Amino acid sequence: MATSKRTTMAVDAAKATTQKLYKSGVDIKGELFRAVLLLSIIVAVGMLGSLIAYVIWRGWDRLDWNLFVNNPSSIFLDTAGFAPAIVGTIYVMLGVLVTVVPIGVSAAIYLEEYADRTRWYNRLVEVNIQNLAAVPSIVFGILGLAFVVRGWLNLGFVAFAGSLTLAMMVLPTVIIASREAIRAVPPLIRQASYGLGATRWQTIRHNVLPAATPGIITGTILAMSRAIGETAPLLLVGATTFVLFTPESPFEGAYSAIPVQIFQWAARPQDEFRILAAAGAIVLLVLLLAMNSVAIWIRARLTKDT
Amino acid sequence: MTTVESDNAIAASLHRTEARWGERVIAAWMFLAALVAVVITAGIVLALIGPTIQFFQEVSVTRFFSTEPWAPNFKPDGFGVLRLVTGTLAIVLYSCVIALPAGLAAALYMNEYASTRARKILKPVLEVLEGVPTVVYGLFAVFFVGPLLQRFWPESIPGKFGETPGFQFVLAAGLVLGIMIIPTVASVAQDAMAAIPRGLREAAYGLGSTRMQVATKVVVPSALSGIMAGFVLGLSRAVGETMVVLMAAGAVASLSLWPNDPVLTMTAYIGRTSTGDISTGSTAYFTVFAVGALLFVITLIINLISIRLVNKFREAYE
Amino acid sequence: MTPKKKGSSAKEQDPAMVRVDRSADAGKVDQSTPLVPIIRTEDLSVSYGDFQAVEDVNLDFGKNEITALIGPSGCGKSTVLRSLNRMNDLIPTARVSGSVHYHGADLYSEKIDPIQVRRHIGMVFQKPNPFPKSIYDNIAYGPRVTDMKVDNMDDHVEQTLRRAALWDEVKDKLKNSAIGLSGGQQQRLCIARAIATNPDVLLMDEPCSALDPVATLRIEELMIELRENYSIIIVTHNMQQAARVSDRTAFFTVSIDEDSGDRTGRLVEFGATSHIFIDPSDKRTEDYISGRFG
């Protein structure tokens, strides 16, 4: 059925051509079409370029050492920094890393190596992951507020509460990327291992995981870079107050995070704060660019090898 | 008939003697890890449902789903969530007008026109575009795009449209949000285009089609369900995005779709309210959960449609 | 021990010579030679979901013999092969009925551990599939995962590679990646890897279909050598190969149900290879072998 439909489409395309068989010269319509397609990419790339130019132009003057080592201040605007937010982001991201990687990779292994896809509960898990990947980030903030900050875990407004909230948010990203990496391992390798009398876990540990590791690392970095720039859920789980001092640990004390600090500064009317916000944005962008570059580099090396 | 050669030692060694507890524990752990996704979804539903029920004990459903003024924190109060829904709709409208066609065009260009080298440059660029934190897009929208639009606003047009917008307004947020979700739309659409069998495309070229004919008459129709999935996913992101609208779209729960009006969306309301001081257990506190529940239901419906479409295009060519 | 000597000298010989040399001792059995079964299937049927792949197979596989499974595509010969060491267990939809007897145990009984089965009945696959590890680690993998008692792994690797007639070619690059070997060497490495765990049966699923004729001859020669110590069951599409190496041949075909159009594999005929190829009892076998069908 489908084939005949596809064939019809191919034939239609060809018919349109044969009618113009004797026309010569440039295909104006085709070139115009190509230009329109290209334009949309140019607009997107141009917007990215002007965004970067804007934050650099606005924030460049405050991109100094004070920014990294000083605490925020509403009095000494020229030397104010966001050291507590940097420490807060480090706490939050470490927490995300240690929770999301073991769970995400294990879930991916289960779905690819253990799960019988015909079972209803495995399909339920799959649909859940696909759906969670597109749940608005602020909804995770509500979840974190209800069950991590208060409720079952009752951690209070501490950095680790932010970690768990963001970990839940990026879990699908890690699972999906790890599954793709695991799926790319040739089935022949697994068969060879099973054929030698290896158990499932031996096969996974000695053959599947080593081959899938670069892909898993890439996916994890991309997930972490998504978490590091996320603001909305953190607004609900505590990273909101104007934090003047570095939190003592991930488990106690009020915390902030770089994107939340940028939001705080941007919301203030004084121009100095807006400049600070732009300077913070540069830091965040450089950090993300570095993380993305590493991920892309690993992926490029990976595709070259195979 | 001869009997099969028999060796009791070997036969015994074939039996399940090792319990392999390690294997079982690992398998159980893997399964539990996969279940976490289900637990999170259940957690979201549980987190939303209790406070939402409490909210509806204090405010009637008809008041909630109405266009009465949105003022949960004031006296006299008002809970007309349709004003927030309208705000979200306005944002979705202006962002999707940009993101959907541009996302499709970007996917088509990447898949049908770009050389391997161009693709190698463009794909990371689109990924970076997707990776820029939303708070930075928010900064850009409110302090750069907004003022720029204000300066060049076509005031010569008579009527409502000709009025120069204020500090925060729909178009600035919608425009930036639209650019922000181009990569989302493009990457899903391009996945679907890449899944089209080579033979189909080659058949069309073999019959003498031009690139444009192949793109519009073969690629787009064949990848339609994937393109639709990209559109729907882009829509879902526009509905759920918080920071850009929180920073650039304003705080007025107006019933307006005009590009030069400020609006308050569902997400911006949740973000704005939770940043301020709000006493736990008050009606205004429960409002956050009620709006969150509505937001979750809306995006859930959109996502399920998108998941169906994605699975459809995956099945079609596997 | 004669085959071993022949194996080491074969390298210097012209492949054509090898062929002549080998055909003399291939097919060492005839119809009257008694069969000492090492594996017996009884009413073996395998289905994948609703699809009945193969039905009611009753076969004896001889000890220290090479048994070839031949037949047209879709006749279920690979399915039968994979059910002998429970590789079909890895396909969730696969269902097996009937029994497979091996050393007094029914391999499909509840008490049997499929992992133990695979440690006794090794397998070589259609495409060479060495692990992306060193040659040494490929050989050592099986003994390591099965906790085999090996006094000295270096010696064991050497012994195994010698038995697979690969030692001289790889002894200087044991730490190199197996991926760097030629296709034929990779497949012989896979055979070596399979015998490193000391199985007594080797299953080979079209082991030469991805190899050139010279590499194929080397593998065939190796199989005849290995027959001394192992019982080998091979699936092949290559009639000449079956005729050259096997002692006994089982011919399968596809039967199509006239009402439903369902295709199911069935065993047609089993006997000494010389008998099957020269004087088959069944018309379908004769048609297939003479090339009129399949």
What is the count of DSSP helices of chain C, taking H or I runs of 4+ residues?
12
As residue ranges, the low-confidence spans of chain C are 1-24
Helix content of chain B: over 70%
Q: Under CATH, the topology of chain C is which?
A: Rossmann fold
Major sheet description of chain B: 2 strands, antiparallel
Written description of the protein model:
The complex is a heterotrimer of chains A (306), B (318) and C (294). Chain A has 306 residues and is mostly helical. Helix content of chain A is 73%, strand content 0%. In chain A, α7 packs across α9 and α8 (187-195) packs antiparallel against α9. The longest helix of chain A is centred in the C-terminal third of the chain and has 35 residues, at 271-305. The two termini of chain A are 36 Å apart. In chain B, α4 packs across α7 (170-194) and α7 (170-194) packs antiparallel against α10. Chain C is of the alpha/beta class and 294 residues long. Chain C has one domain: 3-Layer(aba) Sandwich (Rossmann fold), CATH 3.40.50. Chain C contains twelve helices and ten strands. Chain C has helices at residues 2-10, 15-25, 77-83, 114-120, 135-145, 153-163, 167-170, 183-195, 213-226, 239-245, 273-278, 283-289; strands spanning 37-48, 51-62, 66-70, 94-102, 105-106, 121-124, 201-205, 231-235, 248-256, 263-272. Chain C has a ten-stranded mixed beta sheet with strand order 5-4-1-2-10-9-3-8-7-6, sandwiched between helices. In chain C, α2 runs parallel beside α9 (213-226) and α8 (183-195) packs parallel to α9 (213-226). Classes of the chains: A mainly alpha (306), B mainly alpha (318), C alpha/beta (294). Chains in contact: A-B, A-C, B-C. Chains A and B meet through α1, α2, α4, α5 and α6 of A and α2, α4, α5, α6 and α7 of B.
